[in-house]
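Fold this sequence, please.
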Amino acid sequence: MRFVLVLGLFCLYRPTAIAVEQPITVSFDGVRQVAVSIGGDRDEYEVIVRMKPVQCFDNTTNERLNFQKARSYGLQGLLKHLSGDSEKIRASVSGFTVTSTEYDGEFFRQTFRLPRDGINIVRTADASQPSQKIQTRSLTEEIRIESTLFSSFGDHSATIAALTAAFEQELEPIMAMPLDDGNDFEIAIVELEERMTAWFTQLELDVRADKLLLVTEQSELSSDMTTVRDRSLHMLRNAVERREKDRTEKALDAQFPDVNIEADFEVYLKSNRLLMEISGAKVIRRKDGSSVVIAVASTVLKDSSAEERLRAEKVCRLKALTNVLAERNGVQIAHVEELKDETIVVVKNGAEKATSIMDLLKITKAKVEGITHDMPVIGRWRSAAGGTFYLAIGAVIDRDGKPIHTVAQ
């Protein structure tokens, strides 16, 4: 009895042998001469990718592209092995970990490990059953077998996509730079533009020199690169304009800490501090032919009492109305530029002025008087020191000088 018990305990605590899978190799024809070795144990796959590396860019970009391409090729090889060479599958993958990368003569080698429960395969015939994403892993992605990836055209297309992603990744920390960075932001933007331009200039040369590409494929790749370049340049321009707007708002907050402007007019006044800083009438032309008419007036506060604030309110409103009706004081002119997600007001030549509202809008004095009759107070603010009070009245008028929108007081 004791012998049986001891034997039972021995069997209970006996170490379990870990099964090691005999590595198999999946090879792909193509420009990169890809070979994927798949092995591992019962818990994880170990995948070793060997391929001809990208060498035409700078070292940092080459490293990034080789890392991404090897990863993609390795997952393609694993999927091909698990699917029995069928292309009608898709899968969700998570828990991917790269353990080493190195150059092996003329080849680049990457080794990664993937938990066996980190890949879930669904055949496309079961389209009604989406692949189940593993919730225990922090990163899950959908992949499918892409035989065109290994062709010359597919390789170039993948490079374009990788360079696009690299550009966006490099832009992100630049956008997060603090506003008080001096010229560091502009320098970083210029350097990124130079890198991006160099990438696609070199890739364009490679595409033209690739004898494995059809003429139509070269044309398509060239068109794709032009689209990506134009989009990237647009993103850089928007980044610079956004930074200028943020800096203006920060300066405005410092210059006018106590600002209360109606929402319909805030986008115009706060986008260009000259409109808030300089007293007088302003006309902002909009692209639909209508105009925003605003008049700003200011007065020095004698003290901080409620009575003095009421006096300043009355004085400034009267001054603002006078600015609209004046025939010789001049009008500050601006126009609206609509960007992707914001409105920019540009003051012509910094301070170019017309003689009067009547002259600028080509309307009669009676119409100007009609506009002022309905112009409410649309904003109030103070200077940083608190000694100067500003007030603005405003309205939106059509091409004929008729009010089409005002903000109720």
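The two ends are 98 Å apart (CA to CA). The first helix runs from residue 2 to 13.
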